[in-house]
Each structure stands twice: as structure tokens, then as C-alpha cells.
Design a protein that fits this description.
about 40% strand, six-stranded antiparallel β-sheet, about 110 residues, globular
């Protein structure tokens, strides 16, 4: 029995890392993932760290999406669990890759739950 797909990704060597400094820099990426993957947000929380860095968490009717940024390392982590088995996690990774001008490396793990 499969209940969904779980993407866990590390995005490293982000060239335009200044986008990682603030919540407002990372929200467009999350919105694109949500829109393009037809996900439904039922709640969200954003936290701005000082002096920089952000965490964004979206509660989805399909499960959850979160990002934690580390601008000083040019790095972020992404976690998407979706109970829709038809979602293509490679498409999600492509959205992330394109958001960072094709100038990053994505290490991913996709688990069928």
C-alpha cells in the first residue's frame, strides 16, 4: 500500500544565495511549487532568523512543505510530503533548480510511503 511520496532534498552551491536571507526571498519559490504542483495550503508559518536565514512551513491538505535556509553556506533543505502519488518529485526539483538560475546542486531522496 502506498500512501504518498516524500521528497527530502539538500540544495547546495546556490549562486544567488542572497535569496535565502529573508522569508520574502524564498516565498516565490514555495508559491511556484504550490501552484505548479496543484497543492492546497491550509496553513502556513514563516520565521525570519537574525541576522539572516528563514524557515517556511506550509500545511497542505496533501500533507506538508518546508524549507530551511542557510545563506552563509549557500544551502537550503526542502521537505515535501504529498499523499498524491501522482506528483512528480523530479518536477519539484526542476522548479527549485530553475529558481536558482540553474546554478545549484540538488541532492534528493524520494521515498514512497
Amino acid at each position: 500500500m502506498e500512501c504518498g511520496k516524500h521528497l527530502i532534498a539538500d540544495v547546495i552551491n546556490i549562486e544567488n544565495w542572497e535569496l535565502l536571507n529573508e522569508v520574502e526571498g524564498i516565498k516565490p519559490l514555495l508559491q511556484k511549487i504550490i501552484t505548479d504542483m496543484n497543492l492546497n495550503v491550509v496553513g502556513e508559518v514563516h520565521h525570519q532568523f537574525e541576522p539572516f536565514g528563514a524557515t517556511c512551513l506550509y500545511l497542505l491538505s496533501e500533507s506538508h512543505l518546508s524549507i530551511h535556509t542557510y545563506p552563509e553556506l549557500k544551502y537550503l533543505t526542502l521537505d515535501l510530503y504529498c499523499c498524491n502519488n501522482k506528483i512528480n518529485m523530479d518536477d519539484v526539483c526542476e522548479i527549485v533548480y530553475n529558481h536558482f538560475n540553474n546554478k545549484c546542486i540538488i541532492r534528493k531522496l524520494v521515498i514512497n510511503r
